[in-house]
Structure formats: structure tokens, C-alpha cells
User: What shape does this take?
Amino acid sequence: MLETLGSLTTSPWIYVVVAVSVVLDVFLPVLPSGVLVITSAAAAAAAGAAGSPAPVPARVPDIMALLVIATTASVLGDMAAFRLARRGGARLDRAIARSRRLTRAHERLGVALARGGGALVVIARFAPAGRSVVSLGAGKTQREVREFLPWSVLAGMAWAGYSVALGYFGTQWLGAAWLGTAVSVIALFAAGSLAVFLLRRPIPSAAPAA
Assistant: This one.
């Protein structure tokens, strides 16, 4: 799969593919949006490696453009899921009611946001399917846009920055695009595992009023 993604990074369509993948993986968490971002950043690092006699190809992804596109697409996907859940619907209600885990996650999210714990949105961005639960949960619990959007932007920036940095600096330090990409993907999954651990920690109870 990495070889296929590597060939895709030489096409100007890589920006479109990254954007669509990042937007849609809030609904389909199996999409490899993180791997796409990492592979694109690794290709840019490999092409612009220090000491390379050849000029950087014009079709290699630009790091800043990749960062902006990944961040923007992340926020757009979050808001699409947020709006969908906020409008509600019998089908969505039934889907949530059938899942005890999803119901608990939504209740937990509502309490966390009400207490100003919007950092949960940032942490969940790194967890598998965490972005889906948070975005849909924030809309379902009728949170205000002003409560959710700033944290969604921060989460998108953190996730995109981390993924781009992994691919770019991992390749520069390890010297080979395939090795840098593989190690970076492992690091991305490690961050996801840490995020899952943090999300499972109990929310501290509020201190009693004096």
C-alpha cells in the first residue's frame, strides 16, 4: 500500500485525495487519511533532502499547502458531522440507542464540554474513531458552535501538524522515504493508543460548592 501511495504523491491530485479522505474519515474512520498525509510529507522530505544534486520536482507536495489542506479538511469534516447530528433524526437516535458504548461516550462528552473540557476534542482527534464520536456527540448533545468550533480547529491543527512533522522529519532523520513513512505510521498509531488511554480515564468530579 505504501508503494501505491508513494506513486500518488507525484500527482497534483494528491491534495484533492488528502482533502477528501480527511473530510470523509469522520464518517468512515477506516480511510487512511493519516497515512496519506504522512506519505506526502515524506515524499517532500525525500525530494528536498540536503545534498541532493537534483532539483526538487515541481509536483512534489508542498509542506505548508499540505498542512493547510489537512487542517481545513479536518475542520470541515468535523463541522459536517456536527451539523448532521445537531439536526438529529430518528435513524441517528436509534443508532445511538443501540450502542451502549456510544451512548456513554456522548454523555461523557456533554459533561466534559459543559465543564470547559474541550481538550477532549483535541485528544479524541488522534484516537481511532474518536473524531467521529466527538463530532457527532457534540452535535447530538446540542452544544453551541462557539463551544465546539475553536476546539475542532485546534484539534485539526494538532493532528495535521503532528502527521506532517512525522512524515517530513522522520524521512529526513532516517534518510529513506519508505523507512521514514513506516516508522512515522507506527508513531501515529502509538499516539492513537495513547489518546484512547486518556479518553478512558474517568472525568474528575466537580468540587462541592462552599
Observations:
- Confidence is low (pLDDT under 50) at residues 50-57, 206-210.
